Amino acid sequence: MERNLYSTIALLEFYLKKRSKQFIFASSMSVYGNLRKKVNENDPTNPISFYGLSKLSSEKYIKMFSNKKINYTILRFFNVYGQGQILNNLKQGMIRIFLTQIFRNNNLIVKGSLKRFRDFIHIEDVNKIIFKVMENKNCINQIFNVGYGRKYFISDVLNLIKKESKKKFLIKVKNGTPNDQFGIFSDSKKLFKAISFKARISLKKGIEKYINSIR
C-alpha cells in the first residue's frame, strides 16, 4: 500500500502542482487475477494478491483524479525482463529469479507447475513503447496491456535458458507461491494500433541478450 497506492497519490498531487502534460502509470497484469487465458483491457479485474489489489486501487485513484484534468495513460505490464535487471533478487522477475539461481548455484528451484504460462516482453521493446506513448493523443485517458500476446509455458522458458546459457543445472519443482497466477498472456492489439508499433524481440533472442549481459 505504501509503495504502490500512497506513492501514486503523492505523484498525482505532484502532477497537479507542476501542471504536467501526462501521467503514465506502470500497472500490472496482476490486476486480472487468475483468468488463465489471453486477456484484453475489457476483461474483468479480480486480483488475487495484495500487490495486484494495490495496483488496481492505484488505477481507480488515477481515474478519480482525472476529474481534475489529469491526462493519464495506464500500462498493464506483463512479464518484463532483460539486461539491467540486477541478479540476486529472488522475489521479483521470473526469468531473473531463474538466472540468479543457475549462475549462483548451478541448480534451480521452481515454485509451481512447469505447465504454468506467461507472456514475457523484453525491456528494450518496453522502453520503445513508453517513449511512443508519451504525449500521444491516442493514448490519453486509456488503459493498455503491454505484452507480446505469446503464450510461453515455464518448461519452454527453462529449455531456452538451458540452451542459451550452456549450463547444466538440476531443476527441483516445489509448491507454488501463494496467490500466484497460474497462467495469463496479453492481447495487446489496442496498444500496438494506438502507437503504430510492432514488438520485435523474441524470447530466445531476449534471453540470449540477458545472459550475455551477466556473464
Strand proportion: 15-25%
Estimate the mean pLDDT confidence: 94
What is the top-level CATH class? Alpha Beta
Reading the helices and strands in chain order gives HEEHEEHEEEHEEHEEHH
Largest sheet: 3 strands, parallel
Low-confidence stretches: none
CATH superfamily: NAD(P)-binding Rossmann-like Domain
* Distance from first to last alpha carbon: 36 Å
Number of domains: 1
CATH topology: Rossmann fold
The rounded Rg comes to 18 Å
Give the neighbour order of strands across the main sheet: 1-3-8
> By helix and strand content, what is the structural category?
alpha/beta
What's the overall geometry? globular
What this model shows, in words?
With 215 residues, the chain is α/β, with parallel strands linked by helices. The protein has a single domain (2-214), classed as 3-Layer(aba) Sandwich (Rossmann fold). Helices cover 40% and strands 19% of the residues. The chain starts with a helix and ends with a helix.
Topology of helices and strands:
Blueprint: H1 2-18, E1 23-28, E2 38-39, H2 50-65, E3 72-77, E4 79-81, H3 94-105, E5 107-111, E6 117-118, E7 120-122, H4 123-133, E8 142-146, E9 152-153, H5 154-165, E10 170-174, E11 185-186, H6 189-195, H7 203-214
Parallel strand pairs: 1-3, 2-11, 3-8, 4-7, 5-10
Antiparallel strand pairs: 6-9
Helix pairs in contact: 1-2, 5-7
